[in-house]
Amino acid sequence: MEQRSGQPIWYVDAAAVAGCAIATVLAYAVVVAPLLRKQAVVAAEYQQLADQRKEASRLCNSLLALRSRTGVLEGQSAQNRISLYSTDQMNGRLAELTGLLDRCAIKVDTLKAGTPISGPVCDVVPIRVLGRGGYRQYRTFLRDLHQNLRDIRAVGFDLMADPGQSGTGGPFRLDLFWYAAKRPAS
Question: What is the C-alpha separation between 133 and 105, in angstroms, rounded?
């Protein structure tokens, strides 16, 4: 190093190095570090956006599957709709029920309809049938009831057998509900 007037100039070099170091630290602190933080935030937001897009795609596919299933169920529902009769037509429905019991070779001792019970969607008329019949006739009756009188459902039954009379069948009690059209409020 050169000396001027007898003093080394190393302190000038040291001051320059220190100035560069301070400028570098300030540049890093003011410019680079905020850019790196922003880049990390942007990368995290891109990842979050990608995750949300995947979730949106999954939900969209799920929605399409549910809409398809809803369409199928609405079609099945339209096929299975039951027209409910008014309780004013009770005698006709009871006559149809009696005819079905006769076709199934079930002897009816008593067939009695109870008082209609008003429900939120329809009225329910309890029906009790007492009679005699065999298990096979009774099974046939329940199958035909489900197929032909879809607004009448069996809700309880008792079958009794007499071992001494195997061919004639025994007494039974059958509780039915007839679902009738709701009466308009008076």
Answer: 7
Q: What are 26-48's pLDDT values in tens digits?
A: 888 888 888 889 899 999 999 99
With contact defined as beta carbons under 8 Å apart, do 85 and 151 qualify?
yes
The residue type at 98: T
Token output for 159: 């079958």
Residues 24, 46: one domain?
Answer: yes
Same domain, 153 and 129: yes
Shared-domain flag, residues 171 and 93: yes
Q: DSSP class of residue 66?
A: H
Residues 90, 112: Cα–Cα separation, whole Å:
11
Quick check: helix, strand or coil at residue 31? helix
Q: Indicate whether 186 belongs to any domain.
A: no
Q: Which amino acid is at 100?
A: L
Separation between Cα atoms, residue 58 and residue 137, nearest integer Å: 53
pTM confidence score: 0.56
Lookup: tokens for 173? 């009690």
